[in-house]
Amino acid sequence: MYKKILIPTDGSDISKAAARAGVEFAQQLGAEVIGLFVAPEYQYPVFIEIIPPNFPSEEEYLASMRKLGDIHLQVIAEAAKAVGVQSSGITIFSDATAREIVHTAEQQVCDLIFIGSHGRSGWGQAILGSTTTKVLSTCKIPVLVYRLAKQPGDTGTVK
Fold first, then answer.
1. Range of weakest confidence among 8-12, 50-54, 59-63
2. What is the C-alpha separation between 115 and 146, in angstroms, rounded?
3. How far apart are CA 71 and CA 11, in angstroms?
4. CATH code reported for the domain at 4-146
5. Which residues contact 40 (CB under 8 A, 6 or more apart)?
6. Residue 6: predicted pLDDT
């Protein structure tokens, strides 16, 4: 059915849980997984005539984001290794996360995108925007949206 599954991650707890579930899903299907971390592009300081000395250079920023991407993608790699699923990881720089997820899935010839959702609805989703919703509305390949029954750290008790 599905042979290659793209699993985007942003490093959040919800994203990590979705990534682990995506790897388990891939194992059941005998599919390989590709992890994807989309880092924001470097922003040059605007409206500042002199760049502050503690402001990172573009090279420093790119290196730190690649390192961060490796850390986030490690969750997928470790989960895949534990269950014998072939995996790889990609870090890409873009300020259009949803578009980049769809583009990468097409470029890597994936049959499915397995993506987590934070579960916002109504105004929260409308105001903040939803990467998952944008992926769903622009993608031509199947998208499986993973939602947790409860948020990480949620004990189920009312505070």
1. 50-54
2. 6
3. 8
4. 3.40.50.620
5. 65, 93, 94, 95
6. 98
Given pLDDT bands bounded at 50, 70 and 90, which one contains residue 39? very high
- If one compares 158 and 68, the residue with the highest pLDDT of the two is 68
- Give the predicted TM-score (pTM) of the model: 0.84
Please give the Cα distance from 75 to 79 (Å, whole number). 6
Q: How far is CA 83 from CA 21, 36, 118, in A?
A: 12, 19, 26
Domain boundaries, the chain: 4-146
Q: What's the token pair of residue 134?
A: 């944008």
Please compute, for residue 138, the number of CA atoms within 13 A of its CA located in the half-sphere on the CB side.
17
3-state SS, the chain, equals CCCEEEEECCCCHHHHHHHHHHHHHHHHHCCEEEEEEEECCCCCCCCCCCCCCCCCCHHHHHHHHHHHHHHHHHHHHHHHHHHCCCEEEEEEECCCHHHHHHHHHHHCCCCEEEEECCCCCCHHHHHHCCHHHHHHHHCCCCEEEECCCCCCCCCCCCC
